[in-house]
């Protein structure tokens, strides 16, 4: 079973910034499209951001567009999520996810598209 490990989650105040990381060193990373999802207490998991395997095509949920930015370092096999101007409603467990696509420019929003998942990292934004 492939393991991915998220880190960077913590308690912050509204308006702060935070960068999450996802160590995906067990993957042949460049062949995977990657995504971030989150799950708030009592809610279903939802799509946040996605990035293609190659050429850096990105997609963001409307709720985070212009505030969050997804990126990847293929050499380090690491995925990032830069979160700016955080709000209390951003409080959630954040998960990274991987979908094998080969050398593709595709991005994906649906949970069922992704095969591998991290265990999640908690982000709490206080008002």
Structural write-up:
With 127 residues, the chain is mainly β. Helix content is 0%, strand content 46%. It has strands spanning 5-7, 11-13, 18-23, 32-39, 46-51, 58-60, 68-73, 78-83, 92-100, 116-117, 121-126. Strands 2, 4, 5, 6, 9, 10 and 11 form a seven-stranded mixed beta sheet that branches. Strands 1-3-8-7 form a four-stranded antiparallel beta sheet, with no helix packed on it. A hairpin with a 6-residue loop joins strand 4 and strand 5 (46-51). The mean pLDDT is 97.
Give a topology summary.
Elements: E1 5-7, E2 11-13, E3 18-23, E4 32-39, E5 46-51, E6 58-60, E7 68-73, E8 78-83, E9 92-100, E10 116-117, E11 121-126
Parallel strand pairs: 2-11
Antiparallel strand pairs: 1-3, 3-8, 4-5, 4-9, 5-6, 7-8, 9-10, 9-11
- Rg, rounded, reads 13 Å
Measured between the Cα atoms of the first and last residue, the distance is 39 Å
User: Which stretches are poorly predicted, pLDDT < 50 over at least 5 residues?
Assistant: none
Helices, by number, come to 0
Gross morphology is globular
Summarize the helix and strand pattern as letters: EEEEEEEEEEE
The major pleated sheet works out as:
7 strands, mixed
Mean pLDDT: 97
How helical, in percent, are the residues? under 10%
Sheet/helix structural class: mainly beta
The proportion of residues in beta strands is: over 45%
Query: Strand tally, please?
Result: 11
Task: Jot down its keywords.
127 residues; mainly beta; seven-stranded mixed β-sheet; four-stranded antiparallel β-sheet; 46% strand
Compact summary:
The chain is mostly beta strands and 127 residues long.
């Amino acid at each position: 079973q492939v393991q991915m490990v998220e880190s960077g989650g913590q308690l912050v105040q509204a308006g702060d910034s935070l960068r999450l990381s996802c160590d995906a060193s067990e993957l042949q990373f460049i062949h995977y499209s990657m995504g971030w999802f989150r799950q708030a207490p009592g809610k279903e998991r939802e799509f946040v951001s996605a990035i293609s395997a190659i050429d850096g095509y990105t997609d963001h949920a409307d709720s985070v567009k212009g505030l969050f930015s997804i990126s990847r370092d293929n050499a380090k096999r690491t995925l990032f999520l830069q979160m700016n101007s955080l709000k209390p409603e951003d409080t959630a467990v954040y998960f990274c996810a991987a979908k094998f696509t080969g050398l593709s420019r595709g991005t994906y929003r649906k949970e069922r598209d992704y095969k591998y998942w991290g265990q999640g990292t908690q982000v709490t934004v206080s008002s």
